[in-house]
Amino acid sequence: MLSLTSTYLLSNGVKIPQVGFGTWQTPAGDVAEKSVLEALKVGYRHIDTAQGYKNEESVGNAIKKSGLKREDIFLTTKLWNESHGYEATKKAFAESLVKLQTEYVDLFLIHWPNPVTFRDDWEKTNAETWRAMEELYQEGKIKAIGVSNFMIHHLEALEKTAKIWPMVNQVFLAPGEVQHDLGVYCAAHQILLEAYSPLGTGKIFSVPEMKTIAEKHQKTIAQVALRWSLQHKFLPLPKSVTPSRIKENTEIFDFELDKEDMRLLDSLDGVVGKQKDPDTTNF
To answer: How far, in Å, CA of 44 to CA of 250, rounded?
Structure first.
């Protein structure tokens, strides 16, 4: 039976737990530390943070305090926008290791493909960033490398110079935003899709169809949304700072959505908003 410690196999053979604990918008300090500790306590073994979240230090503290072995936790962080380029990537990564109090990370991602700072030359800058990440990967400081918010044209641009292909693409996926074409492309290239904001940044809770399906299965709306992600073979990264919800979000392995449920959820186009266009973001 599937559980929180069940894994997907990345294209390089690394195992990644099928559900991760997200920390986007979780304030640094006590709040972040306590929520990550709670997540580890209820069984999460995959923690997702980022330089841009400003809470890496708190995540590192929680992992230390948990008493768990470092190798039993899958830890992801992401490169923030102002640190693109070969030298800057190396420097920013080294700083993340210090903050996270670890000698390696399990997954390191380019957070956004086309930041404002590098918009005039994003393709070349990404190639240099990726070269630095490939080196860190080959040195064993990163177990797997990938990207976030990359659309097909960003991946195609990266392919021109990449020696190692991204293993993961973390994007906005939730009922109402399935990103079908990107999914087909990533599947063909053995890129695992991770779902950030799998609860649609909270918008999912006001969708009537979600309520109907949740009642049918005697589950919560959040549990239905996370189950939807798993049945699409996505890797959801639910975030919460409330202990009861942190636990609730783990209880998604004892039921299954039927084909009719999945069809309905896939058809709810735009109910939680859409993936931000990385080429027009203002950061």
So the answer is: 8
The span from the CA of 273 to the CA of 218, in Å, is 26
For residue 65, what are its two tokens?
A: 């305090």
Residue 225 tokens read as 């949304």
Nearest to 207 by CA among 225, 227, 232, 228: 225
Q: What is the pTM of this model?
A: 0.98
* Catalytic residue list: 53
Q: What is the DSSP annotation of 159-186?
A: HTT-SS--SEEEEE-BTTB--HHHHHHH
pLDDT digits (tens, 9 = 90+) for 209-232: 999 999 999 999 999 999 999 999
How far, in Å, CA of 205 to CA of 84, rounded? 36
Whole-number Å distance between alpha carbons of 118 and 179: 26
Residues 6+ apart with CB under 8 A from 235: 8, 16, 18, 19, 20, 168, 192, 193, 194, 195, 229
Q: What is the pLDDT of residues 165-179, one digit of tens each?
A: 999 999 999 999 999
Pair 169, 162: CB distance under 8 Å: no
CB atoms within 10 A of CB 13: 8
